Amino acid sequence: MKKHLLPLFLLLTGANAFAQQDFFALVGKDTPNIVFSDFRALDGASGTSGEKIFTSEAQSRVFSQSRNGAVTEDKNAPNNAQAVSMATLAYDPYNNNLVYMPMFSSNIYVLNAGTKEITLVENSITRVTSCDINSHITRMATGYDGNIYAVNNAGTQFLQISRKGNQYVVNDLGIIKDDAANGKNSFTTIETGFGGDMIADADNNFYIFSASGNVFKVSTKELKAKFVGKISGIPDNYSVNGSAVNSKGKVVIASAKGAPLYEVDIHTLQAKPLGGEQNLHIYDLASKYFANDRAVSNTVSANLDIYPTRVDDQLINVNVHDKSVKGNLRLNVFDLSGKNVLKQNLAVKDGSLTQQVYLKNLVSGAYLVTIADEAGKILLNKKILVSE
């Protein structure tokens, strides 16, 4: 019997390690001040931390996008890849990249979580000054459309960081204003709206969590922040500095004060303590998950899949190696509005299929791919991101 324990142990630890690679924390040193320590993987369901991806002491190799070459940065300056003050982090799952900005800088850094190489995106769009707390970029998240979004404290700059080929492009989408009904719970004042973090939902709206525990829903179409409530179930002095959605669809919040993690229901804003890390100083959280997302990766068979999920050449591969899958399958592609933009039949023979599907005339953006059997039963839902 003992001979089976080691493989089972390895299987379980391997699965846990894999799960940790889609939830990340920007962690600070054990001090009341903001002092960057490391980026690390985090299990968003249990709250336990894993691999340190990149640390303040790591030997960094920085490649400048605009200068098309390696650069040497001043480690004592506020605009370097290992700056002391950081408060923003987003995860780009399509490229396995961590995107972040130093608090007192307009520079954007893209860290490949696998190779540990860093790309510097020089950014002339953002207007950050160290003496103006309103201008500091403190919230960042990946949108459902695959782009990265960031907001400064006062909402006067709403940034979109998109990838065009091998280059990152920054756009200022405008000023986010308070909804008229917000009253004293203002998004644009320091007491009720500053700091914190943000998450995205499946409609490409954003929920911004202020340090005070207030939550605002930001409509990207209207550029308005509507107060939706205050988190309950956390201590009165709890500072909400990080937020991200875990694989269960719950929001995990974290504090820079070395407090426990909490899991929050986005609909009720009720929080409950999460096990695991209790004293980490967390300045920001990031994950690949979205609130209210019904288009998550889901399959009834481990031997039925499509790839890649980041599509650059208009082709996806469909692989089936499952004897229980028989007959003709139906592949459908839907855009974010729910419109069916592509249909194709797939013929499975003896439980096996390897086929490329041409995504003809699909513009850049996020799509949902579904595969159903002859009876209409959905066998797979998976989101892809198409780039031209």
TrEMBL record:
The keyword Transcription does not apply. Residues 306-384 form the Secretion system C-terminal sorting domain. It comes from the Bacteria. Keywords: Signal. This is Secretion system C-terminal sorting domain-containing protein. It comes from Chryseobacterium hagamense. Gene3D superfamilies: YVTN repeat-like/Quinoprotein amine dehydrogenase. Residues 1-19 form the signal peptide. The keyword Chaperone does not apply. SUPFAM superfamilies: Quinoprotein alcohol dehydrogenase-like (SSF50998).
